[in-house]
# Entry
Amino acid sequence: MSTPKRVAWKDIVAPPLNWKAPKMSDQGSESSQDKQDKEEQSADK
# Structure
């Protein structure tokens, strides 16, 4: 539940074979978004 919905949806939809390649390139941008999401969630609480 604490995980952002878009991340969970991406993990489920992405096929195992293509999972590694896109994850590697997206990691940089996703990490930034994850940090922002966590900060926003903390602020909401």
In short: The mean pLDDT is 60. The two ends are 14 Å apart (CA to CA).
